[in-house]
Automatic annotation (TrEMBL):
This is 2-heptyl-4(1H)-quinolone synthase PqsD. The gene is pqsD_1. It comes from Ktedonobacter robiniae. InterPro entries: ACP_syn_III_C (IPR013747), ACP_syn_III_N (IPR013751), Thiolase-like (IPR016039). Keywords: Acyltransferase, Transferase. Residues 223-305 form the Beta-ketoacyl-[acyl-carrier-protein] synthase III C-terminal domain. SUPFAM superfamilies: Thiolase-like.
């Protein structure tokens, strides 16, 4: 995580508009529950943190860099439109030239998709050990007149995927609602620097309906198919706001619901590996569910089971 801390009283948030839209909704009121978030200074980049997170993951897994044959993940927002600076991570870790680098531009479900693809490659016999690394530097790409900017923090996380893992994937569920394409976008608007935006119509619908109600339905279907309930799982979700997370907790009633929203804010695609790493040693449930939503619009959930149980 970056060393710089931004609290709710930071002057940068004084620009945020409080004007309601035609439906009477103020975007600022949708994004609550943060106390602090970490951020990068203007001359700092996220890639060194991605490299450091990856080194920590490799050390914890007792895996040497030369054993990694696939690198999944994404840097968001990258230095260039293309290539993605996941290649900088490859170089910084001195991974082998034979390591396949697979950038996944799938906000915000990149980590889940990387884990799923790594699992597929390993079970197919095409990979032995993979690394999934995600980094978010969104504080540098915010329009601080917009309410969602309240939640954003910077950070990076990584995980090693291999046959000796503590958890194994046993099922997954996904939903693609492509009619909501364009509801949430990162693009250049009034300046050359890209910023994030949630549209007042379809974007708010994605937040209040597709995400709020869709995630519990999808996870519940996944659990029911495996004869499980919320009481069997630890749940890690997207962390944009307590508005969403409180509803998901009430709907699913998970045994454990670890998060880092108050500490680090919304780390977008990095929320999942950061939260998993932060709480990894205290998660006691036999089953773990990772539930992500993402622009596009799409939602994905992975069901993992503790190995040997």
């Amino acid at each position: 995580m970056p060393p710089h801390i931004r609290g709710n009283d930071d002057p940068i948030f004084q620009q945020i508009t409080t004007q309601a839209n035609a439906q009477g909704i103020t975007e600022k009121d949708l994004f609550v529950g943060m106390k602090e978030r970490r951020y990068l200074d203007k001359d700092e980049r996220i890639e060194p943190l991605m490299i450091e997170a990856s080194r920590l993951a490799l050390k914890q897994a007792n895996i040497a860099p030369e054993a990694i044959d696939r690198l999944y993940g994404y840097t968001s927002v990258p230095e260039y439109y293309t290539p993605n600076s996941l290649y900088v991570v490859h170089n910084g870790l001195q991974l082998p030239e034979q390591t396949l680098v697979v950038p996944h531009n799938a906000e915000f479900s990149t980590f889940l998709l990387g884990v799923l693809e790594a699992y597929n490659a390993i079970t197919a016999g095409w990979s032995d050990h993979a690394l999934v690394c995600c980094g978010s530097n969104w504080t540098q790409y915010m329009d601080y007149t917009q309410g969602h900017s309240l939640s954003i923090g910077d950070g990076a996380g990584a995980a090693v995927i291999g046959p000796e893992a503590d958890f194994e994937i046993i099922d997954y569920e996904t939903q693609t609602l492509s009619d909501q394409y364009g509801a949430m976008t990162m693009q250049a608007r009034d300046s050359l620097r890209a910023t994030y935006k949630i549209t007042e119509d379809v974007g708010f619908y994605s937040f209040q309906v597709s995400a709020m109600e869709g995630i519990p339905k999808m996870v519940q279907h996944l659990l029911s198919r495996n004869k499980l309930t919320g009481r069997d799982i630890a749940l890690i979700t997207h962390q944009a706001s307590r508005v969403l997370m409180d509803h998901w907790q009430e709907s699913l009633q998970p045994r454990e619901y670890p998060d880092t929203l108050e500490l680090f804010g919304n780390l977008t695609l990095a929320s999942y590996p950061v939260t998993l790493a932060y709480h990894y040693l205290t998660i006691s449930s036999k089953y773990l569910v990772l539930a992500a939503l993402g622009v596009g619009y799409h939602q994905t959930a992975l069901l993992l089971k503790r190995t040997g149980s």
